[in-house]
Automatic annotation (TrEMBL):
InterPro entries: KH_sf_prok-type (IPR009019), KhpA (IPR020627). It comes from the Bacteria. One of its GO terms (molecular function) is RNA binding. Keywords: Cytoplasm, RNA-binding. This is KH domain-containing protein. It comes from Deinococcus xianganensis. PANTHER family: RNA-BINDING PROTEIN KHPA, UPF0109 PROTEIN SCO5592.
């Protein structure tokens, strides 16, 4: 059975927008083997979930849908506090 090719950035964007209250503020970029997700202020907790379950589920789905030879990671790109 052939696998459908899906873009990990598009899938991550869709999943992250489905979780947060302000989907228009979600930004997703790919840096090497890592897909970085940035959300609106104060919404990091919604993306992480209780005990990290939501972000872990997003990682699992993105890895399952992507090329098995590409070892992807999904990470939260939080703004740095100065």
């Amino acid at each position: 059975m052939p696998r459908m090719k899906s873009d990990p950035v598009d899938l991550t964007l869709f999943l992250a927008q489905s979780v947060v209250d302000q989907p228009s503020l979600v930004r997703v970029s790919k840096r090497g083997p890592t897909v970085m997700v940035r959300v609106g202020p104060g919404e990091e907790g919604r993306l992480i979930g209780r005990q990290g379950r939501v972000i872990q589920a997003i990682r699992t789905l993105v890895r399952a849908a992507s090329d098995p030879r590409e070892r992807l990671n999904v990470d939260l790109d939080a703004p740095r506090k100065v």
